Amino acid sequence: MPAPRHFLQLTDLSSEELGYLFERTTQIKSRFKAYQKYWPLQDRTLVMIFEKQSTRTRLSFEAGMQQLGGSAIYLNTRDSQLGRGEPVEDAAQVISRMCDLVMIRTYEQSMIENFAANSRVPVINGLTNEYHPCQILADVYTFVEKRGPIKGRTVAWIGDSNNVCNTWLQAAMLLDFKLHVSTPPGFEIEPERVGVHDSSHYQSFADPMEAARGADLVTTDVWTSMGFEEEDAERQRAFENWQVDAAMMAQASPDALFMHCLPAHRGEEVAADVIDGSQSVVWDEAENRLHAQKALMEFLLLDRVND
Ligand code: CP
Ligand code: NVA
To answer: How far is the centre of ligand 1, averaged over its atoms, from the C-alpha of 262 (Å)?
Structure first.
């Protein structure tokens, strides 16, 4: 049995494969919009394991699998033996004998790596403390859809050096664009820890207004990610000046886009008039999770498809 292809972090795909996925996403999306039935994953089953909450990830994977002709099963820690301490290695052996594909949202990246090492089928990262690769797949796709190639463009990340930020760092390296990052003191990025050893694709700025200057895309995320709730009070103070507001958007390129992975907190990391304003593409971004992940699931199970 050949080793399965996993998607545990963005760097599990080459830039050429990411380019293929973006093209494939366009085809799958337009077919879906034209109400054309496309069931390449008929009789295939996706198991989704959630150890954290979700709206978009659960819905986009579950609906996406059904739209491709397959079925999806939802497991959460509370209801499964994983929540009672069954070893991840054992769970992976069993679960991967009963399905064709696994998606996991959990805390430590090491958990999904451990699961994948014991899985007979592809494993997809649906968010860990360290990475959120499916999000960046959809985000970059959304940029390309609206503005053309991202190569050579500038993306500004304002806020926390979290899972989404880490994945943007990897994307800049893979897809050859520049990431401007501004985080509050004490929350700095650690590129080496996420496999980004060359500083040519990112630049850190103490002042978020400087980071936003000239950017083609401004993006941010919550100040307190899932699993870090006990730091919330400290973070509310530390991140006070890292809100994307109209003045910050005015520093960016005149046709800059605004993105947020959602859920958002208006009045914290983003001002209401930005997320609800004309430069915001957050609803298209959220919808594209569905289309991009359908292309991803098809690729992991069937490799490249030409029809
Ligand atoms: N952006 C995102 O992953 O949303 P959910 O937490 O709702 O899945
Ligand atoms: N950084 C956020 C993303 C939520 C989709 C979190 O991990 O909670």
So the answer is: 6
